[in-house]
Amino acid sequence: MTSPTSKKVAVVTGASSGIGAVYADRLAARGYDLILVARRADRLEALCTQLAKAHGINAEPMVADLSQDDDLARVETILSTREDVHVLVNNAGIARLGTIAQRSADDALSQIALNITALTRLTQAVVPAFIKRNHGVIINIASVLAVHALPISAVYSGTKAFVLQYSRGLQQELAETGVKVQLVLPASTATELWDLSGVPLAALNKSALMTTEHMVDAALAGLDQGEAVTWPSVADATLWEKYEAARTELFASTQAGTPAPRYNIG
Q: Which of 41, 118, 155, 157 is buried deepest, with most CB atoms within 10 A?
């Protein structure tokens, strides 16, 4: 993704800190004007001021809680009506880690609302305009827990698995257009999400913890290289190819029309 030749806008959700703030900085450095979406007005406004001064771009704060329908609808309207929006970074998300017995139903629903519903609605809002222009970039931030579940991550892993499959299906849908969808699957990254999740950042293995700057720079390098799926911390890219091949083979084997012989059904 090269710098735009004329002013184009990138919308970044969850932009007031962490991964979202780094995406905002990197996209501003590439010449994009910004609409930054987050709940915390003070941080958001300070970041917009900082980025506008540093990169000579326009950065517009949009204070919104994407788990709330009215706020989500306001952002949907921007995405569906502004012709200068060319990039959407679906970064906003939360984790509430713990066993189902320990966590409340509200904890589960809050993760679904932000990690699934908001991402889906914002993508739905921008896709028709992108298709009409035959140009646009959607970056969906998932997690390595999209393909792995822990005893404390049933809901979180489930939401990120949705992001994985939703993004892969959308990539196929848009394959013959100029609209690009990149799926990013970070491993443990040093963000505030951890301290709010129930598993403090200090408890994580430091050697396996990536900085937000390295994560975003790797993801953008993957985008520039044309990757549809980016695993920022995975050195052996053939592991994903093998995973996809095994998944495809497994799916093909389901198309039998009869019970598997091991069930001994006459």
A: 118
CATH of the domain at 76: 3.40.50.720
What's the pLDDT at 3? 47
Tell me: the pLDDT tens digits for 186-205? 997 765 664 565 555 556 56
Q: Model-level pTM greater than 0.90?
A: yes
Domain assignment present for 84: yes
156 labelled catalytic: yes
Number of domains present in the structure of the chain:
1
In a domain, 4, yes or no: no
Name the residue range of residue 241's domain.
9-257
Residue 177 domain-assigned (yes or no): yes
3-state secondary structure the chain: CCCCCCCCEEEEECCCCHHHHHHHHHHHHCCCEEEEEECCHHHHHHHHHHHHHHHCCCEEEEECCCCCHHHHHHHHHHHHHCCCEEEEEECCCCCCCCCCCCCCHHHHHHHHHHHHHHHHHHHHHHHHHHHHHCCEEEEEECCHHHCCCCCCCHHHHHHHHHHHHHHHHHHHHCCCCCEEEEEECCCCECCCHHHHHCCCHHHCCHHHCECHHHHHHHHHHHHHCCCCEECCCCCCCHHHHHHHHHHHHHHHHCCCCCCCHHHCCC
Q: What is the pLDDT of residues 131-167, one digit of tens each?
A: 999 999 999 999 999 999 999 999 999 999 999 999 9
Please tell me the predicted confidence (pLDDT) of residue 28: 98
Mean pLDDT value of segment 76-94: 96
Q: Which of 23, 32, 156, 166 is catalytic?
A: 156
